[in-house]
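Researcher: We're teaching a course module on how sequence relates to structure. For the next exercise, students receive a sequence and then see the predicted structure as tokens, so they can try to spot secondary structure elements on their own. Here is the exercise chain.
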Amino acid sequence: MKVQSILLPLLILLLPFTTYASAPPLSLKNLDGVEQPLNQYIGQGKWTVLVIWAEDCEACNAEIESYDFFHEEHEKDNAQILGVSVDGWDKIKLARDFVKRHDLSFPNLVIEPDMADLQKLGLENFVGTPTILIYTPEGEIVASQAGAVPIDIIENFIKDWVKK
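Model: And here is the predicted structure for the students to work with:
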């Protein structure tokens, strides 16, 4: 499979990832503590941009609202955002406060901040937050990027992928 970088000319770091034919076999808790399988979101006929964030991440706080804008613009059509907080269940109040402070409209789940769980998302290595993963409408992971990625780059990546 050909791995494509989201930021072709400005590649910060391309992360190795595990390929799944469908959504990763993983369930995470939502902010209310209810288990949610990832295949409820990934591989359901829409592009899914998974944003891994942390409440105390400066870049996450600076960029998360642009991802919310992307979600609101595309959720009825062909793409959606799914947030995953690495704050862990011990810091759930901080994660809830982050979502409330930014008035996020996209779903957010919580993962424990350990490599074993993060690898289940498709990452071989986790550098930090934010990290962006892009899944096709069929649930195949096709790109990952450490660091914030502007929404126009994500939109162009999806458009270029569809043209293939």
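Model: If you want an answer key for the exercise: The mean pLDDT is 86. The chain has four helices and seven strands.
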